[in-house]
Amino acid sequence: MPPTDTPHPLVLTLGDRELVIRRRYQALSIVNDILVAIWFLVGSIMFFSETWTYTGTWFFVIGSVELLIRPVIRLARQVHLQRLPGARGGTESEHDF
């Protein structure tokens, strides 16, 4: 098959260290997404009772903060990977996690 100029979705030149870093940040992002879902689900359930509305509002605030953490995780991962020797920016999907 002739080579093409289009980027491939799979990068085979990952070093062990880079792969470990990516997996750790991916796991952190997944945990963060689960926490967001829990905060909003519990907050929504609390809104069924007027006595729990105040606490439910705080759960929504906490969930909103968790939503802000997601791009911080992605930025931290990007900076961490760029600091690796031989970093190749732009070799991965930007919508991965």
What labels describe this entry?
single chain, 97 residues
Largest sheet: none
Number of helical runs? 2
Give the overall silhouette: elongated
- Assign a percent range to the helix content: 55-70%
Structural class: mainly alpha
**What's the β-strand tally?**
0
What's the end-to-end separation, in Å? 31 Å
Q: What value does the average pLDDT take?
A: 82
Oligomer: single chain
Indicate the low-confidence ranges by residue numbers. Answer: none
Radius of gyration: 19 Å
Secondary-structure element order, as H and E?
A: HH
Q: What is the beta-strand fraction?
A: under 5%
Please tell me about this protein's structure.
- By secondary structure, the chain is an all-alpha fold.
- It has a domain at 16-82.
- It is built from two helices and no strands.
- Helix 1 (16-46) runs antiparallel to helix 2 (53-82).
- The longest helix has 31 residues, at 16-46.
- It is elongated.
- The two termini are 31 Å apart.
- The model has no long low-confidence stretch (mean pLDDT 82).
Give the gist of this structure.
This protein is mainly alpha-helical and 97 residues long. Helices cover 63% and strands 0% of the residues.
Helix and strand layout, with pairings?
Layout: H1 16-46, H2 53-82
Helix pairs in contact: 1-2
